[in-house]
## 1
Amino acid sequence: RTQGCDVAAAAPGSPQALCVRPDAGTVLVAWGSGIAELDPSSEQLINEVSLIEEGFLPEDGSGHIVGIQDLPDQESVCIVTSTGDVILYNFNTHQLECVGSVDSGLSIMSWSPDQELVLLVTGQETLIMMTKEFEPVAETSLHQEDFGEGKFITLGWGRKETQFHGSEGKQVAQLKPLGVQPALYWDDHRPRVTWRGDGQYFAVSSVCPKTGARKIRVWNRELALQSTSEPVSGLEMALSWKPSGSLIASTQSKPHRHDVVFFEKNGLLHGEFTLPFCKDQIKVNELLWNSDSTVLAVWLEDLQKDGSPDHNTYIQIWTVGNYHWYLKQSLDFGSSENSQVVDLTWDSEKPYRLHVLCQGWHYLCYDWYWSTDHSTGEDPYDQALVAVIDGNKVLVTAFQQSVVPPPMCSFHLQVSHPVNQIVFLQSPQKSNDLAVLDASSRISVYRYGHNVVKDEMVKLGAARGNGYKQFPVMPYVEKTYRIKFEADEETGINPLRLQHLTWVQDDTFLAISCSHPSSKSVIHHLTLTSSKNGDDEGCMKIRNAVTVDGQVVSLCYSPKTRMVALQLASRQVLKYLWASPVATLEPWKNGNGHPVWFPHPCVQTTLATVDGEVVILGLTERSRFFINDMEIASNITSFAMYEEFLLLTTHAHICRCISLRDTSLKELQTFLSSTSIPNDETVRKVERGSRIVAVVPQDIKLILQMPRGNLETVYHRALVMAQIRKWLDRLMFKDAFKCMRKLRVNLNFIHDHNPKVFLDNVETFIKQIDSVNYINLFLTELKENDITKTMYPSSTSNTLSPVTLDGKKVDRICDVMRAAMEKINPHKYCLSILTCYVKKSIPELETALQRVHELRESAPSMSNSVSAEEALNYLLFLVDVNELYDHSLGTYDFDLVIMVAEKSQKDPKEYLPFLNNLKKMEINYQRYTIDKYLKRYKKALIHLSKCGPEHFSEFLTLVKDQNLYTDALKLCLIGTQEHKDVSILYGEYLSAKQDYELAGLIFARSGDFEKAIEAFLVCNNWQQVLCMAAQLEYSENKIATLARSMAGQLVERRKHAEAAVLLEQYAKDYEEAIVLLLEGAAWEEALRLIYKYNRLDILETNLRPSILEAHRRHLMFLESQNTTFVRHRQRLIIVRELKQQAQQGHLDEEAPEVLESDLFSETSSIMTASDMSGKYSHSNSRISSRSSKNRRKAERKRHSLKEGSPLEDVALLEALGEIVSSVEKLKDEVHCLLKALVLFQYDEEARELQHVFREILELMEGSIPEIWTSVTQKNPAPPVLGPSSTANSIMASFQQQRSVTSPLQDAELFMPPKIDKIFRWRLNILE
C-alpha cells in the first residue's frame, strides 16, 4: 500500500532530512533554513520553524541541519546544526532552546534506541556521549590505534603459513598483503553511526587519516572501544546494525562486483550478497534495517558520468530466507530532479512501513505485507505453482510434481527488469497462467499450452539438473504489455503506481492506485490489447473505473462467486461489482444485513463460503482472525482455503483443518476459541513457527514453510480422509486405494465408509484395482471392528443412515469377493481366492488345500493362470507349514499331504512310514487315527464308533481320557449295554467333579440305584433319595432311619420345615417335627401339627415360650443394629468433611493426587507410579500369587473401620449397607411373629415389636439419600487414551484411577441398598 502527498515548497531550499512522529502521525522535514511539520493525511504544513530567524543558522547559507530526532518523552525535537548548536524545539510552547554548542561544529547526531543517550561527532572527529538531559558522559577521539577491548589473543594456531592453499601452493603464504585502497572518490568522508537494537553498542564508520580507507569501530555505552574491523578494500560509507544484534551491514566495491557485506561485532567479515548492478554503475547512499530485522532497504543512485547531471535513484527491498538474499521490491525514482530521494526511514512501530522523502517536497509512505503468490486451481490439472520474486527472476516451483526447497526451484522466469508483483489467473481452467509486473511498469504474461518452441526466458531451476528424468511443464511468454498511463499519472512521483494487481479474467486485470488527495484510491481496469504494428510488445489499456473514498489496503477475489472485496484503511469492507455493465461499489454486509468493519486492519484477506453465506476472512499482524466482523480466534499465524476446508496454523504449533460446509460462524468461533485441543482428525501438530504455503490439489499435500525458510510437506489427516471419501463416493476405488496405500491409511476404510455400496460394487473394485498383490494386501488388512467409529471418525455429520448387515464383516467380504473373482477370472485371481479362504474368522484351509490339489491335477493353460506350485508356496506364506501339514492330513488325501510335506522341513524318513501305516488301515480306523493324531477327538470318536464292538474298549478309553461323555452317549443306542457302560462312566466322572445331583440322575437312568442314592444323599435331595429307596424296596425301619439322618442334615442347613416333613411323614415322630418347626419360627405349620395330633399341651409347654423368646431376640437385634447404624452414619459425615477440607487445603501441594483437578497442563502427566499410588500400596509380586479367595479377603481387610484408615469411608459405606440389608430381610419373619403374638393375645409385645421395627426402617429410609449421595454413585472415569497420549500419561491415568477410586468389584458399595416398600408387614390392629 502506498500513501503519498505533495506539498508546495513553502520555504526556499530543498528538504534535507526526515523524521517521523508516530504519536502525532506527522512527519518532520529539515530543510535549508529550518524544520517543517507535515500532516500526510491532510497534505498540509501544520508547523514551520526557521532557524535563520532565530539566529541558529547564518543567513549566507553556509550552515545546514546535520540531523533531527523526535523525543516523544520530552514532547520536543532535537536539532543539530553544522555550526555546532544542539537545539530543542518544544511542540507545546513552540519555543527553541539551545542546550549546548560545540565550537568545532558537529557532523553527526545519533540517539540510542532507548533515547537515553545521544552521540555527537564533532568537526575535530571526536566522539561526545551525553545523556538525554545533555549531561556529558565521556569524550574520546574517533581515530584510535588500539584494536579495542575485544582484541584477539593469538596462540599461533591457524597461521597463514600452516593453512592449505589449494592449487596456488604454499608460496601464497609468503606473499605480502597488498595495501588497503583508500575510500572511493565519491565518498563524502563523513562518519556514519549506527546503534544495536538494545542500545548497548554502536558502530562508527569513518575514514582513517593515515590510510584514507574506511574502518568500522564498535563502542559501548561508556564510550569504550570494543573492536576495530579488519582492513577491507573498497569499504563504503553505508552502515546499519541489524536490530537483533547479530550483524553490521555495509557495502564494498570489489573489482568485479558491488556487494553488501556483513561484519560481526568483533570486526570480522561474515557473509555478503551482490547488488544487481555493474561495476562503478551505482553508489550506495544508505542501508536501513527495519525494526524486526527481516528487511534491509538499500538506497542507491547512479554515478554521474560524462558530466551528465541526470542520474536515477533507487530503493531496493531485500529479505533473506534459507541463507539466500532475495530482491523483493525495486523502486526506480527516475532521473527527474524533483523525484530524487533525499532521505528515508523505517517506521519504529510498524515493521514493514517505509517513509521516503523526495527532492521536490514529495513524501511517500509504503506499507508492505507478506503474501504467497500461488495458483488457486483445485482440479488435478493445477500444478500447484508457487512463485517467488528474486530481483529480475521469478522462481517458480510446481509442487504437483516435486517439492523443491528454496532458494532452488523447478524453473525460473527471466525478466528484463526487477519484478515487483506476480499474479495468477483466477480461473479454474487456466489457473497455471501467471503475469509479472516489473519495475518498468510492464506486464509479462506467461501461459501454459501447446507451444513446442522452447522459451529462452524460461529456464530450469537448480533443482532440475541432468539427474532428473521428468522435467516440469513450463510456460511460455505470450507477450509483454506496456501499461499506458494517462498523462497526469505519467508525471507521478510514485514508482509503484499500481498495487494489488489481480488477474480476474483472461484479458482483464484489476489494480489499485493512490489518488490525489492521498485519502482516496482508484480502482483501475487493465485490458490486454494486441499491438497494431505487429511489435513484440503489446499495449495494455488502463482506465479509471471507480474512485474509492479511502485508502484500499487489500483486495481479494473469488473465482467461484466472481466477487471482489476491498478493505480500506478505515477497516471498512466494500464489495466491488466489477463485472456489471456499470462498475459499482457497495458496503459488504453480513448475514444480518449490517455493514462489515474489521475490528483491526487485516494483512491477509480471502473470500469463502460458510454455511451457505459468502464471507470475508481476515488475519491481522497480531494473529487475530476474523470472519466478517466477528473475531474467531486470536492465535492464528496463517490460514488458507482449499475447497470447503479452512486450514489454520496456530501459536500452539498445530494445524487445524475445519470443514465450513455444515459449520456456522458460532460453531466455528466455539471450536477455535476453546482452550482444549480436540483429539481428532482435524488437528495435526506441526513444527514451531510453521506457516501454510499451499495445498496441492487432489494430491492433498500441505506445504508448510519454517521460519528459516525450508519447506515441510505433510498430509493432513482431515484433507486426506475427505479426498478418500469423495473418491469412494464416486466409486473411484483405484485412486482411493493408491492414496491409502501410500499414506498408510487402514484399508478397512474402503469397506467401512459405506459397506452396502462396497459390497454392491465389489466387481468394480476388483476390476479397478486389477492387481492380485493389491487385492491380497486389502484382504490381509481386514479387521472385524468398524474403523469409521474408532480410527477415522468423521468430524462432519454423516448423512448416511447406518445399515446393519448380517454375519461377521471379514467373512462377508471374503465370501463376496471370492464369488466376484470366481466370476471374473478364477485363474488370474487364484491367489486372492486362496487368501479369502485363509482370512475368514475360521480359516477354511482344507478347502484352500483342495483347490491347490485341483490345480495340480488339472493345470490351466491360460497365460495369467497360477500353477499349483505357486499357489502352494503362497499358501505357505500365509499359513505356517506345520499347521498346513496338519490341515492337509485332516483332508485324508495322502497325495495332498505329501505335496505339502515336500515343502516343509520334515524328514521323509519320519512322515513316509507314518503315511504308509495309515494307508494299510481300515478306512474308519484310519481316519480315527488321523483325527486322534491331529487332536480332533470328537471326529476321532465318530470314526471309532463305526469300527465295530472289537474297538469298544478303545472307545471307552478315548471317552474317559478326553471327557467326551455327552458325545459318546449320542453315538450309543439307548438301552444297549454300551450306552449303560458309558452312562456309568459319566456318572462317576460327575461325582468326581462334585456334581452329585446330575450324577444321581445319570445313575438312576442307567439303573444303578445304589450309586444314585449315594449321590442324592450328598446333595441333600431327600425327595430323590426316598424315590430311589422305593426302587430298592427298603423296609419301613430303614426308610425311617434314612429319614432321620437326612432331617439332621437339613437342620444343619436351617431347613426346619423340610426336616419336619421327613420326621412326621417317614419317621412318624410328630413331636420332634413340632419342635423343629418352632426352632425354625414356622408358627403356623407348628399349630397345624399340634391341632392335627390334638396335642394342645404343647401350646403352653413349647409354643408360647418360643414366641416370647423370638420376640425378645428380635428386639435385642434391632436395638443393636439401630445403635450401630447411627454411630456409623455420624462417623461417615465426619470423615467426608475431613477429606473435603484436606482436599481444599492441599490442592496446590497435592494436585497430582486429585483425579478431577483441572490445574495441570499436558506436561504434568510425567509422573512415577509411586507418586500416584500413594503410601498405602502393596507388593505386586505377593498379590499376584494369591487366590481369588485370598484377594477378596485382602480387599475386606483394606476396607478397615479403624479411624484414620485410608478407605474408612468405603468401609463405613459397606457396613451401613450390610445393616440395611439385614434389617430388610427381617420383614417376613417379623410379619409372621406379629401374627403369632396377636393370635395368643400378646398385644403389647406385638405393638412394641412393630413400633421398634417401623422406627428403624424409617430411620434407614431417610438416611439413604444422605449416605449414598450422587457423588458416590459416579462411575470411575475411563483412562485417558488416544494418539496424543504418552506412556507416562496413560500410566498416570491408570494409577490415579486405582488409587483414588475403588476397584470395579466394589462398585456395588456405592449403590444404595434396595428397600421393598410394597410388602405389607405391619398389622393394622397394632396401630
Note: The two ends are 96 Å apart (CA to CA).
## 2
Amino acid sequence: PPLPLLSLAVRWCPTARPGEMPLLEAAAGEGAQGAADELVFYVNGRRVVEKNADPEQMTLSYLRKRLRLTGTKYGCGGGGCGACTVMISRYEPVAKKIIHYSANACLLPLCSLYGCAVITVEGIGSTKTRIHPVQERIAKSHGSQCGFCTPGMVMSVYALLRNTTEPSIEQITEALAGNLCRCTGYRPIIDGCKTFCRESFCCSSKENGGCCLDEEDGLPSLPNEEGKVCTALFSAEEFQPLDPTQELIFPPELMRMAECQAAKTLVFCGERTTWISPVNLKELLELKAKYPLAPLVVGNTCVGPDVKFKGVFHPVIISPTRVLDLHVVRHSEKGLLLGAACSLTLVKDVLANAISKLPAEKSKIFHALLQQLKTLAGQQIRNVASFGGNIISRSPTSDINPVLAVGNCLLNVASQKRTRCIPVSDLFADGLGNNTLEPEEILVSVHIPHSSKGEFVSAFRQAQRRENALPIVNAGLRVLFEDGCDTVKDISIFYGGVGSTTLAAKQTCQALIGRPWNEQLLDEACRSLLTEICLPSSAPGGKVEYKRTLIVSFMFKFYLEVLQALKTMYPSRSPDIPENYLSALEPFHSKIPQSIQMYQDVAPGQLAQDPVGRPVMHQAGLKHATGEAIYCDDIRAVDEELFLALVTSSKAHAKIVSIDASEALKMPGVVDVVSVQDVPATNEFYNYAVPDIIFAREKVTCVGQIVCAVVADSEVHAKQAAAKVNIQYEPEGPVILTIEEAIEHNSFFEPLRKLESGDVEEAFKTVDHILEGEILIGGQQHFYMETQSILVVPKGEDKEMDIYASTQHPAFVQDLVASCLGVPSNRIMCHVKRIGGAFGGKLLKTSLLACVTAVAANKTGRPVRCILDRGTDMLLCGGRHPAIGKYKVGFMNNGRILAMDANVYVNGGCTPDDSILVIEIVLLKMDNAYHIPNVRLCACACKTNMPSNTAFRGFGFPQGGLVTEACVTRVAARCGLLPEQVREINMYKEDRLTPYKQKLRPQNLLRCWNECLEKSAYYTRKAAVNEFNKRNYWKKKGIAIIPMKFPVGFCTRVLGQAAALVHLYTDGSVLLTHGGVEMGQGLHTKMIQVASRELKMPMTNIHFCETSTTTVPNACGSVGSMGTDVNGMAVKDACQTLLKRLEPIISQNPKGSWKDWAKEAFEQSINLSATGYFRGYEADFDWERGEGHPFEYFIFGAVCTEVEIDCLTGDHKNATTDIVMDIGCSINPAVDIGQIEGGFIQGLGLYTMEEIKYSPEGLLYTRGPDQYKIPAVCDIPERFSVSLLASSQSTTAIYSSKGLGESGLFLGCSVFFAIWDAVAAARRERGLSGDFGLNCPLTPERVRMACVDQFTEMIPKDEKPTRSWSISL
C-alpha cells in the first residue's frame, strides 16, 4: 500500500533510477551534531533514508508520527503488551538466509533498523486492496472487540507464518504469549489462528453438536434440542488460503548492503545522544575503551526501560549487533559456545536442537536453561533480547543467571588490554576483586558445559502469571555425586528475586558436601538456606514470607527430582518416594485449548437478510485487523498542534507552598504552563459535599493529583519540561491510605447506605449456628489497551471547540468543558469514533482530562493533544474499589441461611467520583442468587488519600457478590456440607421479593443451574477430583459451581434515555447515528442489525459515522450494560418513523429498490431524516424506605470451573470452565458470547491475579504490565464452554434481548472458589480446619501460604512488625 504523504522532514527523492522504489530521504535537522550517517531501511517495501536519525527515538513513534502508519499502537511503552508488534526482516550474510521475527516497536531504537525491512500491519493487507488471511481470520472469527490490540495480534501471527506456514497450536500460543487483550478473553483469537494449523481440532464437530473431548474424558455428549442449537460462530471454509508467494519480498538492496565487505562504523547523532555501531570486535573494544560508561545495546530490552521509566540518560550508546564475533554458535566435545549478542530465541532453538542430539546425561544444564527460556518474557522480547545482556544486567529477576551460575558456565570477556575467562558464579560472589568486569570490558561469548554422569541440574521459577512475567523467586540447583553412590561430591544453589542480584547459598552448599542424599540432608539444607538467604520484612518487592517459603519449596522439589533419578540409577540403595508425592515433580503443562459455543439458531421463518440473532462479524472487525480503524491518537496532526504533559503531585496529603515553572519554560519547544489560575470558570464540580477537581488548588490530597500541565511543540519536549517543574509542599495530616485507616479516622463520604429486610436480630436467636468473618477484596486497574486520549481543536470564532476524546460519555465531556471554560454547551462539540476499551474508566476521569486540555487550548489558542502514557494513566485514573466485607450469618444445620448482617467498606479515594453509586449497587445486588429472609446490609465509601476510584465493569457487584459467596462457602464448611448443596438450598426457587421488594421470577436461574450441572458433568467431575486428591499430596484439584443473578437497570429513568438519528439519502443509503459509544461491545454492529431488520435493508447499505454531541444531544453514557437496550429502542423508533413516511411510496412500487423509493420520496418532498427517542425504563428506589423498582430485568447464569493447584508454589492451572447464561434472545450470539468470555477472563484476573501495590507514602508501584499482571493467553481454561440458554421469558428490552456486558465478569469468581476447594482439600489432608477464609485476589502467594505444611512452619517469622515495602489495595 502506498505510504501517506510525509512531514516536511522527510521527502520523496527524485533521483531514484528507473525500476527502483522511490526513495524516502530525510533532510538533516538543525540539531545534528557533526557529520552523521544515513540510516537506510525499508518500511512495507518502500525505501527510507533518514539523515537525521535520533538515537533516542523508538521505531513506534517514527512509524506513527513521521510515516503516519498508525496501525501500530502504543499500549505500554515497555514491551509488555504487544500492541506495537511489527515484523523485522534482515539478511544473515554468513548463513545466507533471510530471517523474520516479531518485535516491539516501542522498545526498538530507530537507529537499530539499519539494513532491516520493517513490515507493519498496513503492509500486509488492506480493505482497499486485499486483506491478508491472518487479518481475515482474526476478524471473521470474532477475534477483535475494541480492536486496539488486534494489529499487534495480527503481526505476531504473521511473523510466525512467514517462518512456518503450517504452525502447531503450541507455536501459535507461544507467538501470542507476548500480546495482551483486555476484551476478548483470547479464545476467538486462538480459534481463528488454529485454522492455519495442520492438525485437525475436533470441537463441536459431531452431528449432534457435541464435542469430541467429551468422549475422551468419558463424559456424556449432549444432543441438540430439536436440532435448533448452533455450535459454529464462523465458517472456516470461507477463508481465503494462505499463499506465501504473495508476501512482500525482502529488498535485494539490503542483501547487498549486508554482504558488503567495505562496511563502516555507523554514527547517528541526536539532540542529546550519539549512537555508534561498529563492524568488528577491534572497533568495538576501541569504542568501549573510549566510552567506558556507554551501554551496549542489542535488543534495548534492559537499557530501554531504564531510560524510559527511570530517567536514565546515556550520551553515547554503542550497538554491537553487526560484530560477528558476538553471534558465534559453536558446539564442541566439552559443551556449547554462544555469542553474547545471540538472541534469546536463537539460544532457545540452539539448546532444543542440542538436546535432541545429545545423550540425556550430557544435556541437563541445557534442559534447565531451555525450561526457563520458554516462559521468559514474550516472543517479541526473546526475538531481540541478547543472551549476554541478560547476564551482564545482573538483574535479580534474571531466570537464566541462576542456571548459568550453578552450571559452571564461563564468560569470555575482552578489552583492549586483555581477554579473560570468568565463571558466571563469580559475577554474583562479592562484586569485588579481579573477577569483576571492568567498565571497558565486554562480554564476547558464554561457554555452557555438558553435564556429566552423576550430575543433576534443575531450574525453578514462580511468577504472578505463568508466562511473560518476571519471577517472584527463581532458582538454579545442581548436585554432583561421588561415583556409584548418593554421597554429595559438589552442590551449587543460586536464587533470584531475593536480593539485589542473583544470590549464592555458599555456606549451605559447603555444609552439604560429603552427605548422603536423604531426608536429614533436606531438613538441614532448608534450615540453612533460610538462615543464609536472609530476607528482611521490608525487602523490596514484598511477599517476604512467601519468598522464604519458595526458597525451601524449590529445594524440596529439587530433592525429590534427584531422589527419583537416584532411585532409577540405584534401585536398592535409594529410599522410595511416596507415590502421592510424585505429582510434585510434574510441572503444569498447558494443553491445547479447546472450546465450544452453543446458541439458539434463528427461527425457521426468519428472512435470510434479517441479521438479528445471527453471529455477525463486528462492523469494524476488518478495519481493526488491517490497522485502518482510527482511534483518537491516530487522528492526523492539526496545524500548529501542541502536546500536553501533566505535572502531578508527589505527596499524598500536603499544602502547596509554591510552583516554580521557570526551568520548564526555558526548555526547548515549551510554549506555556497551565494551572488552576488559567481556568476561566469552574475548577471544582460538586455532586456531593467533596468536589471532583480539575487542577489542585492550594493543597493536594493524593499522589498523582494534577497540579499543572506543560504544553510544548512535541510530546518529548513536553515531558522533559514537565519533569523540570519544581513544586514545594508542606506535609499535612493525617495521611489515610487504607480502609482500615479510614475506619479508624471515621473518614467517609456521605451519605452512607443501608438496606434491611426482615428481622435480623430475631432470626439470630432462632438459628443453629452463627458465623462471623471478613473478606478483603483488592482493587483492579482498568488496563484498557488505549490510554486516556484527548485532542482539543479551537475553531477560532465564537469560542467554539472540537473535542476528540476516548470517552464513554461525550455529553459529560461537553458539559464539564463548557462549565470549565464558562461557555454555553453549544460551543463545545465532542466527537467519538471508537475507543480502545473503557470498562467504566473513561467517564469522569476523561472529562476532567478534557478540561485540562481545553484550558491549555483556550490559553494558547492552538490545538492541544493529551495522550497519557501507561504509567501516568494508571497512576492518576484509579480503578475498581478495593473493599472489605465484614459479615455475620445465622444458619441451620442443613445449611439454610436465615439471617445475614454485613458491612461493606470500599476505598473511594480522595474525591467521590462514582463511589456512592457503587456502594448502592453493592447493597442492591449483594443477595446474588440467594433468598435470605432476614438481611441487614450497610455500605460506606471511605475517603482516603488515594486517587479516586471509579466505575468498573460490574460496578460493585463483583465485590458484594464475592462477600456473599464467601459466606456460603464457609457455611458449607461449618455444616460439613458441600458448597453446592448450601448454594442449592438457599437459591431463589419460586417467585419472591428481593430484599429491596422487587418481584423476581427465578425459573431461568434454576434452568441455568441445572443445565450447568449437566453440561459440565459436575458430579462425575467432582468424583474424579476427589479421587485425584486422594492419590496426590502436593497437587490438588478443586471444582466449584456458582449461580448468578445479575440485575440490569439504572435505578432511575433519567439515566436510561436515548436518541437516534437516521438519514436516508437519495441513492438509497442510510446514515445511522445514536448516542452510544463503541468501545468493543459491538454496539454499532448491533444497531446496524436493528436498523437492517426494521428497514428490511441489507446491513451493507447502512453506515455509522461517529458518536457526536452535534447530532445526538444530551445522550447518556454508555454504561451499565444498557447500551444496546436503550439505543436499540431509539434506533428502532427512528426507523419505524421513517418507514411509516415511506409506506405509501413502497406500497405503490413494492418491487422497487431503496434508491427508487428514496428518489421518489424526495420528489414528493417527504422528510428523509427521522429521529428516534427512548424515555428509559420505569425505575425508582427510595433509600429511606429501602424499597422500589430499581432494575428492569435480571440476567441469570451459572458457571462450573475446575482447577489444579501446586501446593508447594501456589501456582494453579485453569482446567475447565462451563458457562450457561440466560441472555434472552441474542441479537448477535458471536458478540454476546465474546462479551461473556471476555468478562469471565477479566473476572479471573480480578479474583486470582491482578494485584495493586502502593508504597507506604501512597505512590502506585504497579504502573505497567511489568508490575501489574492481567490474564494472558496462558490463563484461558484448557476447555472453555459457553452455552446460551434457550429463551423462554420475554423481556422489555429490544427484541427480548438482555444487556450482558458486565455480568460475565462475576463468573470469574468460580476460579477463586475452585482454588478455595483445592486448598481445602490440601488443608484437610494436613489435619487443618476446613473452615477458613481466603482473600482476593487469590494469588500464588495466598494459595501457597494457605496450604500450611512443614515448609511454611519452618520459615522464620518476624518478631515484631516492621515497615513494609508496600501496602496492597
Note: The longest helix spans residues 544-569.
